Amino acid sequence: MEPFNRSELLITAIARLLEGCRHVIVGAASPIPGAAALLVRARTDGALRVNVLGSQRHNSFTNGGVETFDLAAQGRVDAFFLGGGQIDGEANINLVGTGEYPAGDVRWPGSFGSAYLYFLVPRVILFREEHTRRVFVPKVDFVSAPGSSPPNVYRPGGPWKLVTGLGVFAFDRARKRFAVESVHPGHTVEEILDNTGFTLDIPEQVPMTPAPDPSTLTLLRGRIRSEIAETYPRFAAQLAA
Amino acid sequence: MIARLAAAIPDGATVALAQDSVGVAMAVTRELVRRGVRDLDLVGVPISGMQADVLIGAGCVRSIETSAVTLGEFGTAPRFAAALKAGTIRVLDSTCPAIHAALQAGQKGLPFMPLRGLIGTDLVRHRPDWKVIDNPFGADDPIVLLPAIRPDFGLFHAPLADRHGNVWIGRQRDLLTIAHASQRSLVTVEAMTDDDLMGDESRAAGVIPAIYVTHVALAPGGAKPLKFVGHYARDEAAVGRYAAMARTESGFREWLDQWLQADTVTA
Do the Cβ atoms of A107 and B84 come within 8 Å? Predict the structure, then answer.
């Protein structure tokens, strides 16, 4: 097998989750999800529409920042990516900080569009490369966006999958629980359990996250790398290394 | 000219700021810090970055309403984080569409705007100015109302202006919303043209008409070291250096001294 790095594996894993989507928006600080969306766009010959926020070339919006949110509210966005400084077992996410708000212990940038898009986009894919108990906590210190809502709250969207540096996970909205879907090559279920601060479901057979095939690697190292470089030059430079 | 434009903003003003790459008026920001403006209430539309961080670090800010303050790939804005910890500024944490919607209420002269999402977040818990009501057209359908944002000033950088005060922004429509919602708009531009920007129908839809624009000043490179779409990339070395130095108060002061000594127009 051709050698690949972790970014390439994660991009490939996320790309698999976007199959069947018609329109994906990629938000702030999301180079790996951005590369994954551009990869699927390239493979589907443009059938998947992709808008990368912060990009000029890979963004077809003409109505400013509101366009993302207006499209999402109308059901015209199939997938979006969110992360979190903390994520808990009920898929609540925290992008604000730790400790007592607002002075806190650590302050992160802020909630961005999460408090809205988490409610409205059907397939929200949580992505956080660092898989540690620091990130995957029993309960978040601040709810930027809740993983679930009472039945009377308008909520066509929500958490669907979680991708980390260790594996891919599915979120069951009814049970408010994550389950391991696959573990990345070189890692184990035990490692996931050791590094997760909440309980989650583990099937009897946990498959390995598939490695990127040679044609995917060629596409990533050529066209996709140059497409993502417009928005994320530092990330693209590190991909080349 | 840039100093005169900056002089229009008094202490205690509410100022709406464009987000990185859309048109951040960094050259004006330097003049504001030079002048020692105080007690600004900033609105990040819908987020802010180095601009807000510098103003906060320099002691110019009383509060900030924003969805994030970030240096992008360089992480959390360090002076913003330090000021929150020290309790020297007030933050009104928001979410991007809430900032947009509240500005849209401002531009329409409406008292508030409803918005989906938000219910059950700690944002709502810490925003007593946001109200949850039951949708009067539905049944058992809670929805959040946001009070209008009507800034005293919109402050941003744009590609081009004409002699009549019309400003061309292309598809950076957030700048139009800022201009519509703000009582006065102060704009620096990369270039001036002798053409009438409203005279070309194919370009007119990307123009902020002069009626919304209070002052225009020529400032080539006026968004540097930040990115300005279609003109220049972010100066990664300069922003990286800022991110590193601003981690400490003394480092930030050293950076600020050097920045204030540099030429007004960062061409």
Answer: yes
